[in-house]
Amino acid sequence: QVQLVESGGGLVQAGGSLKLSCAAPERTVRSRTMGWFRQAPGKEREFVSAITWRGTYTYYADSVKGRFTISRDNAKSTVYLQMNSLKPEDTAVYYCAVLIVGGNYYYDHEYDYWGRGTQVTVSS
What is the model's pLDDT at position 18? Predict the structure, then answer.
């Protein structure tokens, strides 16, 4: 059973910042694109951001562009999501996942390994 472990969630006021981390087994993430998704109560899970193996390419949902930054440290097999200027609408459970080879980073069904999520709550 592959385990991805997210951390760094919490409660923050609007305008604040949080940094999420996702640790995974090295053999699982080697040469793979990693992504972050989120799911708010009563809503479908949605794409947030993704990063290729060497960090050459990064992708963001329009709703977070300019506020969130994805990065990775392959020596630590860890992916990060720096979230700034948080808004109440960013409140959700955030998940990291590993994209299948050749998959489209935007679609959650093209990720084959997932973490259990970390709660982010932004108060107004």
Answer: 98
